[in-house]
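Please check this.
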Amino acid sequence: MRILRLQRPDPTRLIEEKISVARELYELWGQDLKEDEELKPMLARYLQAVNRSNQAMEEAGTFDECYRCSVIDQKGCCKIGLENECTVLILLLNRMLGVEFPEEREVPGRCFFVGPRGCKILARPMLCRDYFCIRHHQRLTEAQMAHITQVLNDELVLLHQITSLMRRRLEAWTGDFLLELDLTGYGV
């Protein structure tokens, strides 16, 4: 009698597959997307929004708190598998913005994109940008939290608009078969 065992999906294999698809799409369509008349100004606004978000978070001490929690206390939220919140479209956007992906997981037990000094990608899923643990949330004043949330909202709205437009362009150019571009989660 055979016993079936539940196989746990390998989060590293899944993100490597997504990265591979994003790289291929970038090679085929990246230049067309970067030069798209509607998308090009959105990319510039997105970079500005990310910079504003990063500045607000830096001023509030959120990056220091995350570093302290993750590196010094060996805790942190960016655990293995979290990288699969990245869709192929977000990965493609990162390539369009000049981001190179790591070839392997650099910090054992952590998100594929976490390096010794923090996240290595620029365009990040909503969960990565708009999540504040209880420890962190308790350190922020209500005014700081409101400001960060407002600034992050601008970034995340643009992220959604950009990836939606990228999806529409790719579907128009390649056909309506690209449903896996929005795949998230920890399973295959």
